[in-house]
Hints:
- This protein is α+β, with helices and mostly antiparallel strands.
- It contains 11 helices and 4 strands.
- The chain folds into 2 domains: 217 residues, Up-down Bundle (Multidrug efflux transporter AcrB transmembrane fold), CATH 1.20.1640; 75 residues, Alpha-Beta Plaits (2-Layer Sandwich), CATH 3.30.70.3400.
- It is elongated, with a radius of gyration of 24 Å.
Amino acid sequence: MFIVNNKKIFISISAVMVVLAIVSVSMFGLNLGIDFKGGALTEVTYTKERPSLDLVNNTLNALGIGSVLVQPTGEMGYLIKTKDLAQEEHEGLLKALSFEDKHTFSETSFNSIGPSVGKELSRKALLSIILVSLGIIIFIAFSFRKVSKPIASWKYGVIAVVTLLHDVIIPIGLFAFFSKQFGVEADTLLVVAVLTILGLSVSDTIVIFDRIRENLRIETEEKKGKFDFKEIVGHSLSQSYIRSLITSLTLIFVLISLFVLGPVTTKYFALMLIAGMFFGTYSSICLSSPLLVLLEEKSQKSK
């Protein structure tokens, strides 16, 4: 009952974090990668000794081909992201990477993505997120169709989506900060992370909502419709929060291992998921249920 009794405090905390995340995105923006704005991705693997990252960065920046992002991959390779390169620029890049034939390497792959492809990918990514959110509302409304009092079933779905937006906006705000501070680029892995957060986070919320629904059914049958909704929500939380915490912590520990031990290319993907799971667990316990109680109290006052 502690969370329900102090619902305004927990809702305010969430509101402040969301506002800070929106400010972060507004101030720093997202450093879009070639997946969204177009460009070229070159992967090379050195044969004997890989030159230092600083040396590669300094050499490529001196070519005058614009912004260059170099990421180590494996033990001997580099991923190099640049603007779309002409044939001469591509050949000049490869020549520079040999450092006057002091380092031998092989070009593992070279991919070029046009701006139109990037725009299409952005549109599809946004559409995917919207469709997932609508699907969640419809699914929860259908699952809770027999629950009409004191909260209509579709309102459970709306609250679930509100909490999901909370779970996604805050990690994106953190990502915008990292983009500014460390030059991290937003690529398709960011979209995958957002969709994964949506799926993982809503499962916790549905479990708690389902417990509330079951307790409502029991109270309705035993007390013939006379019950305290706030008390039922608090009791449901006390029955569910340990399960939610253990499930989320188990996954977070795995993601921390991926962040620490995994390849460079997936570090910020893992970090996004860690943030999403942390705030998703918080919202499932400390935001979604208090919002239900707040909504019920306002509906009672309006009668």
